[in-house]
What we know:
mainly alpha
Amino acid sequence: MNEEIDRQNPLIDEIDTKVDKETSDIKRTNVRLKKTVTQIRSSQNFCIDIILLYVIMGIASYLYSVLH
């Protein structure tokens, strides 16, 4: 039993190291992605979203009045 534990400890340590590295890579990627999304979704896009929302609401109310 002890031999098996001694044999698996280096493997577990290696896996732990790889998981830590990948976690760090994912965190860096998330930071870069957040910066990119923030740049893309600027305040002017908010105005476009509001206008599109009004257009969709207009279409929905027209369809409701025609179908009702």
